[in-house]
Write a structure and sequence with these properties.
By secondary structure, this protein is α+β, with helices and mostly antiparallel strands. The protein has 14 helices and 20 strands. It has a 4-stranded mixed sheet, covered by helices on one side. Strands 7-8-10-9 form a 4-stranded mixed sheet, with helices on one face. A 4-stranded mixed sheet has the order 15-16-18-17, with helices on one face. About 50% of the residues are buried. It binds uridine-diphosphate-N-acetylglucosamine. The site of uridine-diphosphate-N-acetylglucosamine has 22 residues, from helix 1, helix 5 and helix 6.
Length: about 400
């Protein structure tokens, strides 16, 4: 299983806090990681890759302006704010982009960093931030935002004094970031709970960190197996981080066996309807698997409903799935899925990362050939979905 995108990106951002070399092993070879590396290089870090190992030498940071081209491509570029402010006291960036999955403001990032002594101002669409040495404070997040939690943890790690963060996100990727930072000399407690305490240190040191397996990629292939039928071993899949996904897919008919080195999945092609599903913050069912799940729900025995609780506007894929014969009605943040769809291949268009992966899964289940255009969205998060599915016996082609 490839390394986790959402764990690797903030750790790469945090490598800028180290005036030396950070080594990341099991780092996924995906477009978002390449984009983050370009951002790191732009500010003066030296980045090199040898197979799955990435080395970042951030001894000399020479620039505090992040180029629009990369920032608008990927929302997680916003997590560079905390590390850059901790290291060089200023930053200038355009507002971040990323997948088109509804409103994605950065107000919580800004409010939280202000609490540590950062001043923000906006000039002609460019966001400028400046600070002296950051100062520890109490920060209360109104919603457990993953990115805002990461940003404030990173800023607080090099701040003077103690920062108490309330209302934190508890996703495994927060734990990963805290583990990496602590391994580099930070003093952070409570990662993975709603309350994190950070005792600022003067500087961080060089370290090596192994990126954990990607729970969302594992979940995508698990749900794909449920929808299409078959038997698959998800090597190194992080079952401990996938409880809600395992529970739901098991209730829908997947036969699962969790082993120390991965998860066996067997499905006979019959998918039971769960009636209602809701996405939510960890440990609830992840929003990033909502689109793949839609495909399995299209195949289910009866009607079901799926409510999206994290992002508004994350059902864009429904329209494309309907072109393939699905029957999905979307009303605001809720989709009603008819079930028993006889999917038929046709030409569909990926509009964002997870929706794109869902279209490929639908193609696997469909009768006849399916063409999914805009593959680059899928390559943002999957190392090679064509290679992986071909390895499972799917008749699939596609150039990177
Ligand atoms: C991260 C993940 C993404 C995942 C999401 C939720 C990475 C690189 N991306 O995204 O794959 O889908 O967590 O698990 O790790 N919000 C605000 N203001 C802010 C920040 C967020 O209103 O300042 C809102 C967002 O619009 C959204 C919700 O809070 O509705 C959750 O967003 P957040 O947890 O911040 O997601 P990301 O960190 O962007």
């Amino acid at each position: 299983m490839q390394g986790s995108k959402n764990a690797a990106l903030p750790v790469l951002a945090a490598s800028l806090m180290v005036p030396g070399v950070t080594t990341l092993t099991n780092c996924p070879d995906i477009l978002d990681v390449a984009c983050m590396c370009s951002l790191l290089e732009h500010v003066g870090a030296k980045v090199s890759r040898r197979k799955k190992t990435l080395t970042v030498d951030a001894s000399g940071i020479v620039c505090h302006k992040l180029p629009r081209e990369y920032v608008t491509r990927m929302r997680s570029s916003v997590v560079l704010a905390g590390p850059m402010l901790g290291r060089c006291r200023e930053i200038a960036m355009t507002y971040p982009g990323g997948c088109v999955i509804g409103d994605r403001p950065i107000d919580m990032h800004i409010r939280a960093l202000e609490r540590l002594g950062v001043t923000f101002f906006d000039e002609q669409g460019i966001l400028y931030a400046r600070c002296g040495r950051l100062r520890g404070n109490t920060v209360v997040l109104p919603f457990p935002s993953v990115g805002a939690t990461q940003n404030v943890v990173m800023a607080a790690a090099l701040a003077e004094g103690i920062t108490k963060i309330e209302g934190c996100a508890a996703e495994p990727e927060i734990v990963a970031l805290c583990d990496f930072l602590n391994g580099a000399g930070a003093r952070i407690q409570g990662g993975g709970s709603r309350r994190i305490t950070v005792e600022g240190v003067k500087s961080l040191h060089e370290s090596t960190y192994r990126v954990e397996a990607d729970r969302i990629v594992a979940g995508t292939y698990l749900i794909g197996t449920l929808a299409a039928g078959g038997e698959v071993f998800l090597e190194n899949a992080p079952a401990g981080q996938m409880e809600s996904v395992l529970e739901l897919t098991e209730s829908m008919g997947a036969i699962l066996r969790v082993c120390p080195d991965g998860i066996w999945v067997r499905a006979g092609g019959t998918v039971f309807s769960p009636k209602t599903v809701e996405t939510g913050v960890y440990p609830a069912f992840p929003t990033d698997l909502q689109s793949p799940l839609l495909v399995a729900l299209c195949r289910a025995q009866s009607q079901s409903s799926l409510t999206e609780r994290i992002f508004n506007g994350r059902f864009a894929v429904a329209e494309e799935l309907n072109k393939m014969g699905a029957c999905i009605w979307v009303e605001q943040n809720r989709a009603v899925i008819q079930g028993k769809a006889a999917l038929a291949g046709c030409h569909v268009t990926a509009k964002e990362l997870r929706g794109g992966a869902a279209l490929v899964l639908a193609g696997v289940c469909a009768k006849g050939g399916t063409v999914v255009s805009n593959r680059h969205f899928i390559d943002r998060g999957y190392e090679d979905i064509v290679r992986d599915l071909r390895g499972l016996g799917v008749d699939i082609d596609g150039e990177k």
